[in-house]
Amino acid sequence: MAVRRGPGTLYRRLRSLQYLAGRDRAAVLAFLGARYPIPLSLPRRLALLRRFVATTNHVRAYHTQAEILTVVDRILRLAGRADLTVVEAGCGKGASTAKLSLATRVAGGRLLAFDSFRGLPENDEHHRNLDGRRVRFRAGAFTGRLPSVRRTVARFGAPEVCELRKGWFADTLPAVTEALDVVLLDVDLVASTRTCVTHLYPRLRAGGVLFSQDGHLRATVALLGEPRFWRDEVGVEPPEIPGLGIAKLLEIPAPRLRLGEPP
């Protein structure tokens, strides 16, 4: 008899527990023991973690708990900062959006989530993972319709701090005028990474960070490792990116020096 493995199944719940005790264990322990600028008791942390797991159990997610906890940690490190603003580019089915909204609410900020809500755009990109395996991102992949994502955030997240902005990145991101603190990109296409980094990275405040979940793709690694991209298109000195060419989740600190600014 075939075992049902999708969202909401017993299999999914058991696998979540297995991952917490194994693959994600170090990140969970780090989160439970971390020090933040606001009071965050152990019971509140455990409650947050339980909601993350419940979300994963019921909604298709494209991240590990360790990955999302790394981003959540950076949000909470900035808790209490005036006008704290978190951006997500690429919502998928809304699992990550719901989790980020919970962390953003605890930190006293707001979350801006950008997606076409139509899946990936038409493209002719052909990718390879770092291990050489071919990857093809077809138009419409990873679709999460706006009403569905809104319901997911309402059920599992904190909708009062979350604003969903619909459209292709090239159309929506130029309108971003806010100073940003934490940005998470999960956009797959190198063209989308280029658009997102160009428009969002220069808006990071000191102490902020931009994450990319596409560090497993050779084309993304090549783009982020190209100094001319940073200087000519982003307008900053190339940042140091720990784990580039090795890690899937890349963490890029806010620019220390923008071109044209005195050192």
Could you walk me through the main structural features you see in this protein, from its secondary elements to its overall organization?
The radius of gyration is 18 Å and the shape is globular. It has 263 residues and is of the alpha/beta class. Helices cover 40% and strands 15% of the residues. Helix 2 (25-33) runs antiparallel to helix 3 (42-58), helix 2 runs parallel beside helix 4 (65-77) and helix 3 runs antiparallel to helix 5. The N and C termini lie far apart (66 Å). The protein has helices at 10-21, 25-33, 42-58, 65-77, 95-107, 146-156, 169-172, 190-200, 218-224, 227-234, and strands spanning 85-89, 110-115, 127-128, 134-135, 162-166, 180-185, 204-212, 250-253. It has a single domain (62-253), classed as 3-Layer(aba) Sandwich (Rossmann fold).
Helix and strand arrangement:
Blueprint: H1 10-21, H2 25-33, H3 42-58, H4 65-77, E1 85-89, H5 95-107, E2 110-115, E3 127-128, E4 134-135, H6 146-156, E5 162-166, H7 169-172, E6 180-185, H8 190-200, E7 204-212, H9 218-224, H10 227-234, E8 250-253
Parallel strand pairs: 1-2, 1-6, 2-5, 6-7
Antiparallel strand pairs: 3-4, 7-8
Quick summary:
The chain is an alpha/beta fold. Helix content is 40%, strand content 15%.
Shape: globular
Order of helices and strands: HHHHEHEEEHEHEHEHHE
Report low-confidence residues grouped into runs of 5 or more. Answer: none
From the coordinates shown, what is the CATH architecture?
Answer: 3-Layer(aba) Sandwich
Largest sheet: 6 strands, mixed
The portion of residues assigned to helices is: 25-40%
- The CATH topology corresponds to Rossmann fold
How many domain modules?
1
The CA-CA distance between the termini, in Å, is: 66 Å
Q: How many distinct helices?
A: 10
For this structure, what is the CATH homologous superfamily?
Answer: Vaccinia Virus protein VP39
CATH C-level class: Alpha Beta
